[in-house]
């Protein structure tokens, strides 16, 4: 009960957060074909039952996705250097300032960061967080996401959607308490390198942005989705974006899941 109270206070205070990580923490917005490219909208409550929001012992906030009832997928830079246990995770959350009965607050048991992760370049920006007590997945409010595993696919021109609770503008008072999503198109990595140079490797996918819309601070580690054969898949994990501001219309970069699908399978907790 004490943990629950502390967590609710922390998440309610998030809407008024004064201390934010100095590193770029951008967030995406998303779902199916509900939006045309370039549009952004507030999600329907529990529209994304696999998405989680969490806070760390460093006072930072990130997103992630449920990939098994005892594990979430997130960005390595969100959990790098943390103690164990150090994450308080809330799945099934829509409004981070309004607690719901569906919240299943969990404390991390173990964190597995990619062994070749670089905090300087954000290469291999992927991590798995596991829990001793599993989530109760009902398929509606809480569910796990399917990971896209086709390594041969060329994603250029594909519509993709990102979701999160990040800043709506380049200011602290623009934090979104409700989950938002944004749909745009994946651009060639060559075009993305014109902005981020050699940081854009072949294991990255970049999403085009529209000035004033798209990914922003706080939602690092959150998902990038695509739809194939009417099924929703997670294609990426939000990694980094334009440091001069979220509203500049610069592309955002996501760790490409197909490039790490074997690593994910090999590093999920063993039963």
TrEMBL record:
SMART domains: Tryp_SPc. One of its GO terms (biological process) is proteolysis. Pfam families: Trypsin. The keyword Acyltransferase does not apply. GO terms for molecular function: serine-type endopeptidase activity. Keywords: Disulfide bond, Signal. Residues 35-269 form the Peptidase S1 domain. Residues 1-17 form the signal peptide. The keyword RNA-binding does not apply. This is Peptidase S1 domain-containing protein.
